[in-house]
Specification:
This protein is an alpha+beta fold. It has 8 helices and 7 strands, in the order ααβββββαββααααα. Pfam families: HTH_Crp_2 (PF13545).
Length: 210
């Protein structure tokens, strides 16, 4: 059962909801759910059907593909105020989810059922504009990822990932294996690079953090 606080936080995180007509707001509020994913919980498995349009209110999920050899390749992450481009693609095309998605931290989502999503796409200019603009922006980000994987050396990918993941104190709270998954490499190579950077005084390596 949704609470008034959940609805208010959803609207605060996604102001477009305020632009809905009275009937569309009633539809959205009457069908939206607010699932909670604990850290490590699975949001989508490979080829799952997409039953909902997901809007991240708080937390973070990672979307990735696993190779036949068991190597994980990060595609993108969805944080507070974000949506999942592959979920949108699934809802628009009717196909299955082409990757896997797991919560990295406790994550609260607003989930609009597929029927509500399609009705709002047909009838609400505000919702349709938001979805298509967001989809275009996220798709552009995926092309940047493809370019980075194809052309950027591993050292550059790892350095960028450390900068993205660092908190306000400059600490990355990740293991070498998690960083390796993020940059499409293996733990041994990432550990070697971090060790070299530590010797040069560029980073400090501790257990579970850099």
């Amino acid at each position: 059962m949704q609470s008034a606080d959940q609805v208010e936080r959803w609207i605060e995180r996604f102001p477009l909801v305020r632009d809905f007509s009275a009937s569309h707001l009633q539809l959205a509020r009457g069908t939206v759910a607010f699932p909670i994913l604990e850290a490590g919980a699975i949001a989508y498995e490979l080829q799952d059907s997409c039953a909902n349009y997901l809007m991240c209110i708080d937390g973070r999920t990672r979307v990735f593909r696993m190779s036949e050899g068991g190597r994980e390749m990060l595609i993108y992450k969805v944080g507070a105020g974000g949506t999942c481009v592959l979920t949108t693609q699934c809802l628009l095309s009717g196909g299955g989810f082409p990757a896997q998605s797991v919560a990295e931290a406790r994550t609260e989502l607003a989930a609009l059922p597929s029927d509500t999503f399609r009705q709002l796409m047909r009838e609400s200019d505000a919702f349709r504009t938001f979805v298509l603009d967001d989809y275009t922006k996220l798709l552009s980000g995926m092309f940047d990822l493809v370019e980075e994987i194809a052309f950027a050396p591993l050292e550059q990918r790892l350095a960028r990932r450390l900068l993205v993941e660092a908190d306000v104190d400059g600490i990355v709270w990740k293991t070498h294996q998690q960083l390796a998954s993020d940059v499409g490499s293996v733990r041994e190579v990432v550990s070697r690079l971090l060790g070299e950077w530590a010797d040069e005084g560029l980073v400090e390596v501790r257990r579970g953090q850099v």
